[in-house]
User: Fold these one by one.
Assistant:
Number 1:
Amino acid sequence: MFEPTGSRRDAASTIFNLPDYRVIDAVEGPGGQRQVVVQSTAPPGCPVCGGISVRVHSRRRQVVRDVPMGGPVQVVWDKRRWFCAEALCPRGTFSESTIQIPARARSTARLREALVAAVVVSGRAASETARAFSVSWWTVQAALSAVAVLLEEVDAVPVRRLGVDEHRYRSVKYFRRPDGTWRRFEPWMTTLVDLDTGRVLGVVDGRDSAGVGAWLAARSPAWREGVQVVAIAPSAAFRKALTEHLPNAAISVDAFHLVALANDMVTKVRQRITRDRHGRRGRLVDPAWANRRLLLRGANTLSAAGWARLERVLRTDDPTDELGAAWAIKEQVRRLLSTGSLADAHEERMRLGAYVLAANMPESDKLYDTITAWWASIEVLIVTGVTNARTEAANTAIKNIKRTGRGFRNENNYRTRILLASAAKTAA
């Protein structure tokens, strides 16, 4: 019969697995509360002279927060104070400290790592993580803030392609003015993303030129010189900030937003035609309203049945042919953006202008004016192919973070959560 030759204390230390510590006692209190007493095994080195001590000055017990081990466990550190062995050292005595529990710490390093991993990697809410690990919300947030300080500085990250796009930070609110009217308030924030890696570089207040401009002004001249192309939505505010702080960077307008503007034009034409014909909004009995999503589909994605439905809608619910003209202009915009050369783009633009002139509608005229105003950026898009796809993906991840946390009230905590999640994702 074989029996283990090691002590039960060594086995307990192995199971507890706290580096530089051994278990010296474990008791179960009333109500099933377990208490584990540990003692440091690290050499007691003086923090001033580095000398290793051999004489214990005193002992005291300190409760330390640690990860659950088969359920909640109260960890008690049998902490010793030592005499310094060097006679010339000004430090007469010193307390123990280890990598797991540094000086003045009340939580183990592995607990802080577990808290950060639960929130950043697993995507759990800070409040949920706090309940799971039996700690306070403040402990979780302190661990996240400490890790955020270690993130690589933005100026140390070379960026060739930058993406800028806005997202709504909190829900829309309404405030009553003194005169009784209501004011709509939308709390926007702007995301800046490295389009090569997808990493979120910064999150600034608002969606105007001031916030983006201040963030760019804080970057080093070398960093700004390295940016070659910036992808944005057709926003004059963003373009103003980029022109001022990144004069050498080419500005590419995102194709998704241009197609969205074309779709909005089709919708506005459809709504105007319905109001003019029926004096009301569209209803299910109106073929154009019932197939409103079909009108926004790309022609190259339609099946034979989809084409038949579209033709039926334009034949039966488009007496002025304006809806069909709007749909054709929308498709021409998509063809223009899918061209592979500037020559083809200029040819498609001329064809688009002819369509708009023939349609003679205020909605399509406004769309064409927008394309004309942003034509230089459209040329950059066609030549470089740089879009805001990674920025939109980052905004989608940000929305998931907001939903998980049921919203955020503190902007700094909001930024910390976004930057940590993005850094962890891109590092993986």
Number 2:
Amino acid sequence: MGCGSCGTAKDGAPGGCQSHGHCSSGGCNKMNVHNWLANLPFSDPESSCRIVEVSFNNGSRKDYFKNTSLHYYEKGEMIALEGVNGFDVGMVNLTGELVRLQLKKHKIDENSPDIKKILRRATDIDLAKMKENKAREAQVLIRSRAMARQLKLELKMAEVEVQADGRKATFFYIADDRVDFRELIKLYAGEFKVKVEMRQIGARQEAGKVGGIGSCGRELCCSTWLTDFKSVNTNAARYQNLSINQTKLSGQCGRLKCCLNYELDTYMDALQFFPTDADMLETAKGRAFLVKKDIFRNLMWYTMADSNKQYPLALDMVKKIKAQNREGIKPEVLETAEVVTGKPKEVEPEYADIVGQISLKSLEKTTRKRRDKERSQEQGNRPQQQRGQQQSRQNNDQRGPNDQRGPNQQRPQQQRGPQQQQSQQGNRPQQRPPQQGGQQPGSQRQAGNKNQGPQGNQQRPPQNRSNQQQEQPPKPDNNS
């Protein structure tokens, strides 16, 4: 962990600066550093640097303060400092000998009387007051932009930083030209009741304060470690054989990316060995024009005017052809160099039986056997289902229109043997002959049901036609 106050609590969450134990990775603030000399002992502790680097507003601004007391402040601690007509609260960012290197870099004298002092460790009252005043910054920023728009000033208000005691406010703005903001300062002082300080910053500093993710997938350099912004022009892209595309070469600030200067020195050192007057070569087939320079392989690529084919030439060959052109000699053919890629050729891995003598055929055989067994069982069950369906169809055909049963009625009795039939016939009462005269139709239906066969589905046909005629009611006589 980067700071000593990031101790682990009972629930496992780190305490202290609430950076979850990753102070060295930029969790505490934007412009974070790692003090790699913190644990090294010194022979003369009295000669150690007494200046402390303090960060404000999550690392958007840094300043240096003198430690006049005997207290030792660790990275990540909140301390109270001298401010303008009051006090301010900041976070310790760097201590020890590395601060001397930073002072030398920014050309600040360590014994300068202008360096303010550290008052004490920040108390709960100091932190509560700072939190209350920091909550005003968003509303102050919105109101300051509206007031600048009313005065029709050509500036953009980027950020507002209020001091911890609320007595001073610093306004960071962006402007292309000089701006007369004397009237604006009076309005700000009367509106917000603070001492106003105006600071002009550039577009790169604004991007560093806002932060974000670059096209490389990492956090912006200006918001993590970059403090010096050097000028970047399109020549840096030309030397590196990059296409002059404004959308690809511009960063989130709208300016050219700072990373174009990172590898520029390497390219400039390598281009010293390339000929400068070899933009065009004379050959027997025509002129060859330079397309690009490959400093990693020491090759120069040329193309002919009447074709799209490219010819890679070594530096010695280009110098030789250029010397022949000065003498009026035109070579017949361009001797191209063999382009060898440094990337190793990928070899397709061969199959290796790591498990042992296990083949997939055995698995396929068992799967095939199981599938055949299931298929045979399905085919064996299919005839039984067909027989049952046929039998149910026959029973339905044998049923008469009056023999339809509901779901609660009993099924017809199965066929019985001859002994059972005789016993049933013996128990039945004797059938009476049909009566002469007007017999009711219901009696015939009951007699017919009793005389059904063993299946009980078919009705007994009438015995003779005379019985049917007797059963009909007599017709009335019109003469009578």
Number 3:
Amino acid sequence: MTEKDRATEMERDTSGGGTVQEQSSAFLANVLDYGADPTGHMDSTEAIREACKKNKQVYFPQGTYQFDKLTISGSVTLCGAGDNATILKTSNLTENVLVFKDDGWHVKDMKFDAAADRTAGAYIFSGANYASVENVAFTRQYIGVDLDGSWSVNFVNISAFDGTPHEVSPGGAIIRLGENAYTGPVNIRGLTAKPSASTLQPSSGITMRYVDVVSISDALIIWHKKDVVVAPKNRQFAALIEITNSCFDTAENGIYIEPSGGARVLRCGVSNTWFGAHSSDAAVINGADGVVTGLQFSNCMFLANGGNGVTVEGQGVDGLYFTNSFSGGNLGSGLVIKEGAQNIAWNGGVIGACHELNGNVGYGYEIEEGCSGSISLSDLRGNTAGICNDPLVKMKAFGNTVE
């Protein structure tokens, strides 16, 4: 459709005809007018570049658009006809594909694909602010979206399929936040990620390093090496991460928290979330080379894992709180505290047999010399090795239900 035809279309009364997408697309610059090929046979890089250079809102009708990479300036919105209808397919396998330089960018209603598995770079990279990614799908991604230094970014209804396997190129993720620069606030609402086979899992679902005020809700991540990673480095910190109403399943670890080089993880909360069926420990909190403090897990389930339900380790861990949570059916122990971790409190819930599962094959809880914590008002029945390995009473225990 030419600009003149589109103007004519906009003047018509559309109240009775056409879909919402068809009506709204009349207000956007159409990449077909700039020579883009929706069949995917010809390269459309220059056509897309021209459309983005001359317009603030760019529409991709149904089709597959082959291109290399683009750097986009200005407050530009890229809009497709739906994540099953519009596919942006890159031939570039190692660099950032879309780089947004300026504030106010948005991407919605499209799918990203590549000619083969990508081994580096992100489909979308930005350090700019006031942006959004909505109704977008990724496949064959190394990293889907990489934000480094951004403020006020919203993710809504993101899907991810087969990614670059960790064994092919480690370090990949669906979403990576704050790799080097202070990033946040970021809101992720609705992320569904499941490859077609366990061998097609990238290194993580979501990786967070130098972040502040990150909200994650309604996330379902399956078959990723580590579903959620919180790993600030050097002088970075990760603070005020809130995860709720989510499901992390069938990975190596559900959540892996490991600051390094003296970095800090602090004041974070996880609630109403499942961590189950992982090949190793469901949750690992490691403060051997950094600080972890003020974390709270409420109404969480650490069930049927190949290792421990929860492992807390390192002298930098001081102050973790588990409230009304469940850890059972694990091939290891329900809760392990070691290597100097301090003030680990488990209040209410179950560490043992629960929800039609047997107790843990190991102990209910294990604690090493030099660590401290408390177990209170919890059901500790049904663990094969027994309630605990704590003859020296290093763990304060009161009000619990025992054998």
